[in-house]
Amino acid sequence: MTYCKRGTEGLIYLEDGTLLRGCGFGAKGVRYGEVVFTTAMNGYPESMTDPSYRGQILIITHPLVGNYGVPDPIVRNGILQNFESEKIQIEGLVVTEETDPSKWNSSKSLHQWMVEQGVPGVSSVDTRLLVKKVRTLGSMMGVIASGEQVEDPRKHIELRYDEIDFTRFTSPKSPIIHQNNSPDIIVLVDCGIKHGILEELYKTGFTIVRVPCKSSADEIMNYSPKGVVFGNGPGNPNILKDLVKNFSAVMEYKLPTLGICLGHQVATLALGGNVRKMKFGHRAINKPVTDVSNNKCYISTHNHGYGVYKEDIPPDTQIWFVNPDDGVVEGLIHKKFPLITTQFHPEARPGPNDTTWVFQKFKKMVIKDEGN
Asked: Strand pairing of 339-342 and 329-334?
């Protein structure tokens, strides 16, 4: 019998029938979601608050999680500096060992934070086995429980991940304005934006207006923006029909446009391309991407379970970035419209800063457009 330091038992169940029992931590309860993994060795506060993880149970492959605790939020210009959103977004957390913190700026332990946020966790399980299952069989639905007896985990799976529009949980209900030195406005279509991306956009000097994910092209253009950004967000892009339609309508204005992650996928669909479910996705802070224009390779942050492949790209676009490991298209440039996209997260918080120049490239597109 495994010794549980918190005196609580837990379990993680995969829909292929795998059931592992371990120690519960965080909040008591039972949650279900798509089971995915990240190979990041640090940055668990950022990963856990990334809205792109909404609806998912996250396995962290690094064996010790919680070493540096959880800091107090730091907010500047209405933007969180050390979290990606205002709350934990994942359905549950699976780790090999949940540890107590030791760091100067830790205000609470991982366990305490998850208790406060109502998110269950399971430790003392074989995460290597679980990751091998996901890599072999693909991402699948699962159930996590902490401090609760569960006789038949399958009964807790209510819907498939691919069937749910998670943006209704992560998008703001009304516009949010981040006033900056410049009166020129960039409209950010916010389907669940990471605050790291928001921070890099703010650094361009433009005033940022975050509008709800469902905003129409008319609502977006009412702000007379100098550029538009379609940001990251959770879930299956193929069911976001209204968002795809609105993207197409915005493109007719020929404004400088940047699509990031979900925005890259929506751009692909709006322009006539295809987006496919990946076997187990890319989730890490050390993924390579190659700029095909100059063959330079960058290390970048990823969090996506859907991908665009070479045969899926829309007409009148050219590949900008590609993942050299599996060939997934990681960025596009449109040949006629002022549009660029990245599947990866160019801000890379807390990972490498190799690709933050993408935001400056977008800024130059906006300034050039103003000069015409």
From this structure: antiparallel
pLDDT at residue 349 in the model: 80
User: Measured between alpha carbons, how far is 226 from 160 in angstroms, rounded to an integer?
Assistant: 39
Q: Are 122 and 4 in contact (CB under 8 A)?
A: no
Beta bridge partners of 146: 10, 29
CA–CA gap between residue 186 and residue 256 (Å, rounded): 10
Q: Which of 94, 89, 99 is nearest to 54 (CA)?
A: 89
* pLDDT bucket at 237, cuts 50 / 70 / 90: very high
Cβ(201)–Cβ(356) below 8 Å? no
Summarised one tens digit per residue, pLDDT across range 268-300 is: 999 999 999 999 999 999 999 999 999 999 999
User: What is the pTM for the complete model shown?
Assistant: 0.96
Q: 8, 146 in Cβ contact below 8 A?
A: yes
Q: Which residues are catalytic?
A: 261, 345, 347
Q: Tell me how many degrees the CA angle 262-324-137 measures, rounded to the nearest 5.
A: 70
